[in-house]
Amino acid sequence: MVVLQIHQFNGFVSSVSRAQTNQGRRRASTTVCVQTQLAPSLTQKIMESISVGGEAGGAGGAYSYNALKRLDNIWSNICTQPTGPQETQQIVSRVSGFSQDYSMGNNLVGTFDIVVCGGTLGIFLATALCAKGLRVAVVERNAIKGRDQEWNISRKEMKELTEVGVLTEDEIEEVIAAKFNPNRCGFENLGDIWVEDILNLGVSPAKLVETVKQRFISLGGVILEDSSLSSIVIYNDLAVMQLSKGDTLSSRLVIDAMGNFSPILKQIKRGRKPDGMCLVVGSCAHGFKENSSSDVIYSSSSVTRVADSNVQLFWEAFPAGSGPLDRTTYMFTYTEPQSTSPSLEDLLEEYWKLMPKYQGVSLDELEILRVVYGIFPTYRNSPLPAAFDRVLQFGDASGIQSPVSFGGFGSLTRHLGRLSNGIYEAIDGDLLDSDSLSKLNPYMPNLSASWLFQRAMSAKQQLDVSRGFTNELLHVNFSCMQRLGDPVLRPFLQDIIQFGPLAKTLGLVMLTKPQIIPSIFRQVGIPVLLDWSVHFFMLGLYTLLSAYIDPLLRPSLEGLPSKTRFEWKRCLEAWKYGAGLDYEL
């Protein structure tokens, strides 16, 4: 069973906008020897034919072919690095004593309740906290602005932004660039499943981020753009940050919203190689005549060979808000970082071959407006507990997103209310030690259970199942969920794993196609299945605790001491969100 979302690219992602062709020229040697050079790839030709505008901060902000090569270099280094801890830059350090006993220099910008590092998604949490009356600053290494490429999301998730005071209903309508239905799930000619209102909105990040940014400023928030974080020193009473321009900020709490490749996250994980990776490539193009529906997940082929690696390729496609003939298509795959893994450019070369057949158009008929690509690392042990006093990971940096979902905007909207309330209570009660902060990023069995799904969707390099196994497994699972109805299918499609729907689907799959069970064991392996069984049991336990024990405990919480009350409230939230019971149909 697999749930997929394309809410927003929040790993390393890039996009390329339209342009004029730059043709490389061969230079012939005047000597007898002729110097040859490698012919440019189709990807290079297309991307260099697209104009490069100004870069935006955050995901999707880099536009050039050179940016693709830089990201591929990062991906190559991840694939070839040894397993185990690595030496990393020490961004965060701890000092005994109080800040007043040490000199902070002459460039102190101010003292805040909270400083959020990373503005593209961090601005959402910062605004929610500012609306509660806290003094909040946002530090962003670029400018805080959204990219041109739309984020795809459902209306239910957008409405969660109004509940925390980040947006109004009218502002939600203003940032929606596209609406479309129906939405398809399909697997290599095995049949399609059609649903309504799943990821059926295209939201303009440029408008959305700017709207939230202005709301933040109007609430008294402080923004420091074009400033990178250099270091954090943790004292008994404050965290003191040094920025790249020499400025100093002090804060009671630092929130790391710098994404999957945060330097603080790298220090905490000691440079450890990710357990899995989702690689995504795609484009937004003009010229699609059939453009009213979307693909939430689609597979048009079995396991195939790209470069030196077996890959199972999947697709998503959405109408774009830039015009009625404009459409965005994504091709993605799940893999483990290893030396034989394909590069993003390898995948883009395959994309240009396969996308026209997938969409029923010729590449010559299309005008490429934008190219998108990204890498999204995942770790089994997520979410990440706080490793330091006064420092908390948020969004993709915390690992709160599903391992089968590339990007964190959907998980951000889902958890924004829970986290903004919890952070406010932590500040109010001065509960900023690492143990207290860790309760804001607790173990969630539904998230851990999703690991099995990524493993089932990844192609092994030594195949011991048929090449069509993944499509067959996905089709039977989605067919069973459709038979069980919306209470089972819709939570899955919106990245919510619940015990009841999962148990029903597993049971129906075993009854419908028991012969597929041995292949599942061979594909994912006994150790992974045993580990998953523990999380499945915990998912059932959390469901029981949230449904029956929570109502008995909650009325008595107000009479408890503040620290005990804080801990119990976070525990009840962990039961609820860890069981997926925050989802309402």
From TrEMBL:
<protein>
    <recommendedName>
        <fullName>Lycopene beta/epsilon cyclase protein</fullName>
    </recommendedName>
</protein>
<dbReference type="Pfam" id="PF05834">
    <property type="entry name" value="Lycopene_cycl"/>
</dbReference>
<dbReference type="InterPro" id="IPR036188">
    <property type="entry name" value="FAD/NAD-bd_sf"/>
</dbReference>
